[in-house]
Amino acid sequence: MKDLNLEQINKDLKDKSPEQIIAWALSIAKNALVTTNFRPYEVAILNACTQVDPNMKVIWCDTGYNTPQTYKHANELINSLELNVHLYVPKQTSAYRDAVMGIPQIEDPNHAIFTEQVKLEPFNRAMAEHTPDVWFTNLRAGQTAFRNSIDIVSMSKDGLLKVSPFYHWSDEKLDAYLEERNLPNEFKYFDPTKVLSNRECGLHS
């Protein structure tokens, strides 16, 4: 994976469909997976991945703070797309955390501990157990400054090939994609670690 010419690959893939991009990545992968938190537009990457590989591993790291709407949406997609979900949750319950620290603001020293507990530790545990070489995500340009600096295919800090098939897509184009395929979306989503909508979530930077 380290010998790949990412610049050339991204040029070659720029005008390909998400399904074509996924098929290309799977052709060089030994162990691929897709991660999700069922936030808005996640249904696009989940649908595209399962169209190419119906049994692809789906890693869901649930912070424990999702909205009721998100949980219902997740359950709907797991059933309708027949997702091969592997669920990871924090080692502490949200009730325990609410009692001892609540949801800290970004300037609170406890914010780093909170993020580690609800997001980073479950994610790192999932990656350690599944040891993927290709990681599909729904990152898109325009979401954060960091995400603007990558491309369809990039290399994570841990040497994983990170593939974002919808990287160049706008919300409007994604809306059309979902409408054409009669796929549901859900916007009532809450990420307790981000505070601001344009902050990076911690998994990708």
From TrEMBL:
Residues 42-184 form the Phosphoadenosine phosphosulphate reductase domain. It comes from Lutibacter holmesii. Pathway: Sulfur metabolism; hydrogen sulfide biosynthesis; sulfite from sulfate. PANTHER family: PHOSPHOADENOSINE PHOSPHOSULFATE REDUCTASE. This is Phosphoadenosine phosphosulfate reductase family protein. InterPro entries: PAPS_reduct_dom, Rossmann-like_a/b/a_fold. It holds the Pfam family PAPS_reduct. It comes from the Bacteria. Transmembrane segments: none annotated. Belongs to the PAPS reductase family. CysH subfamily.
